[in-house]
Amino acid sequence: MPAEPKSPWTVCLPIEDAEHMGKLRLIKGLSILVDGTSVWLRGDYLDDELDQRIRSIPNAVRFMIQANRQLTRPGETVPCAQLPDGLWQPLRAWLSTKLPVAGFAAEAGSGVMLKLVRSSKNRQANLMLSSWERWRAYAIQAPAVRLSRLGFAVSENADVLIRGTPLPPIPGHRFIEDHGIIIPIGWQFEPNVGSVIVRQVLKLDETVKALFSEDGSFELVPDTAFVQATRSAVRMTHG
Amino acid sequence: MTVARFVESLFKEGRVRVGESVGRDGQLRQPTADDLQETKAILKEFELSYRADLSGDPPAVSDKALLWGAVTTFYASSFLAYRDAGEDAIRLALSVPCAEASSPSVCYAVDLTLRFLPDLFRLARAASPNDPLVSVLRELAHQWPLSSVGIAGVEPVDLSSFRDNACLLQLYIDRIIATKDRSRLNEPLICDKIRAAIGLHSELAPELSSYLITTNPQTGTE
User: Which residue has the higher pLDDT, A15 or B111?
Assistant: First the structure.
C-alpha cells in the first residue's frame, strides 16, 4: 500500500488475530468495529510508517475507503466490498491493557514420582537384613577376617542390619547401599537417578540412611545404630 | 617393676617398663608370692573380657600356666631391654618349662601374655640377629605354636595340644590370616580352615589365597 496521506483506509482480520493491533494502539484517529468473527480497523491517514505496521498484522486484508463507503483493494479502482455499519469505537478504548506479572514466575511442574522398579543390572549386595539369632550364631563362630569388614545394627524387634562385604552366608534379605540410600537387590529407582539425587530429594540428614522396601516406602536408620562387628560386640548385644 | 605392674601396663597401655631381671650378684630375680598373687588376679580379670572376643567357647584357664606365661614374657621383655645379660641367665629364665602338661587350657592361659612373643622376637632380631635371646625366643616359639604365629621358620609345628579345640584352632587361623604367615600352611587341616575362612573372597587374604591355589594340600608342597 503506497503512502497516501489523508486517504481513508481499513483492514479486516479474524477476531482471534485482533491482539496484533496492540502495536497500533497509541496511534491517534484509529477506530475499530467488531463484525461477527471479524474485526475492522480504520483510519483517515496513512503514511509509510503506519502502512508498514499494518502490513505486519497477520491475516489482515487491506482496503481503501472510497466514496459511499465502498472498498477497493490497494491499487485497484473497482469496489469489491462495503464498509460495514456499526458502532465504531476508538482503538485505544477497545484494547484494554493490564500490568504484566512481575518476573513471570515459573510455574511448578506436576513433579515426577520416584519409585522402585525391577532391575536387570547385576550388582553386589553390601547390606542385608536378617534375624538376630542367625547373625549371632554366625558371628560368634565366624573368622575374624570376615567380621572385620562388617558392621551391624539391631532393631527392637530383633532384626539386624549387617553391612559390608562380603556379607555373611546366612539367610536374609539383601540390599545395596549407596550414599546412605539402601534399596533391595534387583531393584532400581525410576527415574533412574543416583543415590545422591535421592538423598537431596528426600532431604536426608547426613547422619541417617534410608532403608527402602520394594513398595517404595522407607524408614530412616541413624548411622550411630551401626557398630563394628566383633564377637564381643555381638555377645554384649541383647537382641 | 613387678610382674603385676608389667602385666597391667601391657594390657592397659600396650607398652611396658621393665627392670633388670638379673641382680648384681648374677642371680635371677624371682617374683614374690604377693606379686604373683596380684598378677594372677589381674590376668583373671582381663581374661573375662578377652574371652568375649574369641570364637565359640574358650577353654578354662590354668592358673599355673597363666602365671608361667606372664613371668616368661616379663623376663623376655627384660632381656630385650637389658642386652648385657649373658646367655646362661637368659636360658635360666626362659627355659623353665611350664609346670603343667600342654593342653587347650594351658595353651590358652599361656597365650594370654605370650601372644606378644612375635613382637618380642622381631625387636630382638632387629637389635641383634645373633643374640642368644633370639635363639631362645625361637625355641619358645617352637614350643608354643599358638602364640608364635607370625614368626617364620618355626617348623615343624606341633598343634596337637590345641588342634581339637575349635576356639583355639580358630584363633590360630585368625592369626595366620592376619599375619599372612605362609609357614603355618603346612598341613591339610590348616589349609582347609583357611580356605573355609576366605571362601570365594580371595581379596580377604590375597597372599595366602594365591599360595593355597598353587600348593598341594596333601603335601604342602608347591
Answer: B111
Residues of A in contact with B56 (CB under 8 A): 140-141
Measured CA distances, B18 to B39, B73, B125 (Å):
15, 11, 19
The pLDDT tens digits for A18-77 are: 877 887 888 888 888 888 888 899 998 888 888 888 888 888 888 888 888 888 888 788
Q: Is the model's pLDDT at B128 over the cut of 60? A: yes
- What three-state secondary structure class fits A154? strand
CB A152 within 8 A of CB A163: yes
- CB of B219 within 8 Å of any CB in chain A? no
For A231, the closest of B55, B177, B205 (CB atoms) is B55
Which residue of B lies nearest to A148 if distances are taken between CA atoms?
B204
Peptide bond into B217 cis (omega under 30): no
**H helical segments located in chain B:** 3-13, 33-50, 63-81, 87-94, 104-114, 117-127, 132-143, 166-179, 188-198, 206-213
Q: Is B76 exposed, middle or buried (0-12, 13-18, 19+ CB in 10 A)?
A: buried
Query: Which of A145, A169, A235 lies closest to B52 in CB terms?
Result: A235
**Could you give the CA distance from residue B202 to residue B221 in angstroms, rounded to a whole number?**
20
Question: Is B55 an interface residue toward A (CB < 8 Å)?
Answer: yes
Which residues, 6+ apart, have CB-to-CB distance to B152 below 8 Å? B181, B183
Q: Which residue has the cell 496513512?
A: A46
Domain boundary assignment for chain A: 9-96, 115-236
C-alpha cell of residue A204: 536426608
